[in-house]
Write a structure and sequence with these properties.
The chain contains 10 helices and 19 strands. By secondary structure, it is α+β, with helices and mostly antiparallel strands. The strands form 4 sheets. It has a 7-stranded mixed beta sheet with strand order 1-4-5-7-8-11-12, with no helix packed on it. The N and C termini lie far apart (66 Å).
């Protein structure tokens, strides 16, 4: 399925039709080069991105209409659709099983955009919420409906919900990195523990640390502010690329200070994305604490003298067994495995 890419703006209906055609092509599987063409079209105009996001929300809602099987079938019994330009008339399908394919082709426009679901009458209504979460040894990278990217570190959780006016993410725990698709019409807002980070098109990292929310900007700019009930009103703090700010969760306390970072500092902040961490002359107790945050198999030091033993090297934090074998091979420890723990002793 090929699309016309000469649409120069037009009205909302034309944009919606073209967005639906792009999504239909994506559903069938992009031919080589078509994914890049779709991304270029989506970024060309904020209205394009908004139409794609809204259609994705509508179609997600349609996926949950199993409880309305009879209404859906009755609707299609009353509709005599025509095939879209350039598409052959599809073979007849059982009404309910084929309804989503019909919707992709634009044959159920009245159902999707009309009174049956009423989405066009409520353009600011919340779209479906999606929750992402990782385990203590987990990692997840997700492509969001607007083209933005969400990466979750270990033991992290986030809820994503888009509206016609705003893209919202609630970071419930842990750490996340965002690469935000540019859309001036819909700011991208991440909330974490009463702190809000607002961006349009940028990349930044947000994590909970002891008593604070830490924000590190890797590209572009963001605005950081308190939004918790009772928080004193203040102008947002602007952060630029290679800057970090730790905003205390408690309103009382010293004013946060923006910390400039060099490229090595930024790489260290994002080392969790590579699942590899570089340790340099680091106490073994600290190294083990890092491994234990990423794995269900826990390391336990039984000889206190080992705690201060200095360790250096690059280690994959999600491969604790390899780390233990390396320590054993170098004669640093003797390991005793007991269920979900490994006891480390002086050899």
């Amino acid at each position: 399925m090929k699309l016309s890419e000469n649409h120069g703006g037009g009205d909302a209906a034309a944009i919606e039709a073209e967005a639906m055609a792009w999504l239909a092509e994506r559903e069938e599987g992009f031919a080589p080069g078509r994914a890049a063409a779709f991304e270029a079209w989506r970024r060309r105009d904020p209205r394009h991105a908004a139409a794609v996001a809204e259609l994705e929300q509508v179609l997600a809602q349609l996926d949950g209409l199993a409880a309305h099987r009879e209404e859906v079938n009755a609707h299609f019994d009353r509709v005599s659709p025509a095939p879209p330009p350039g598409r052959a008339t599809p073979a007849p399908e059982p009404a309910f099983l084929g309804w989503r394919a019909v919707a992709w082709a634009g044959l159920a426009a009245a159902l999707i955009f009309g009174a049956f679901l009423g989405f066009r009458a409520r353009p600011s209504a919340l779209g479906p919420e999606t929750r992402y979460a990782t385990t203590t040894a987990g990692y997840e990278r997700a492509r969001l409906a607007d083209g933005s990217t969400l990466e979750l570190n270990t033991a992290s959780a986030a809820r994503v919900q888009f509206t016609a006016a705003e893209r919202r993410v609630e970071l419930e725990s842990g750490e996340a990195h965002f690469e935000v698709a540019h859309d001036t019409a819909r700011p991208f807002v991440v909330k974490a523990g009463g702190v809000a980070v607002r961006a349009v098109g940028t990349a930044f990292n947000v994590r909970f640390v002891a008593g604070a929310v830490e924000v590190t900007v890797t590209e572009g700019k963001v605005a950081v502010e308190r939004v918790a009930p009772g928080a004193p009103s203040a102008a947002p703090t602007l952060l630029a690329a290679h800057e970090r700010l730790a905003l205390p969760l408690a309103a009382a306390g010293p004013a946060p200070v923006i910390e400039p970072l060099d490229p090595a500092d930024v790489r260290a902040v994002l080392a969790w994305q590579r699942r590899v961490t570089d340790f340099s002359d680091t106490p073994l107790a600290e190294v083990i604490a890092r491994f234990n945050r990423h794995n269900s198999l826990q390391l336990v030091i039984t000889d206190p003298a080992l705690e201060s033993r200095r360790i250096g090297g690059m280690f994959a934090l999600d491969d604790v067994e390899a780390f233990v074998r390396l320590l054993e091979r170098d004669g640093i420890i003797r390991a005793e495995r007991r269920g979900d723990t490994v006891r480390l002793q002086i050899p």
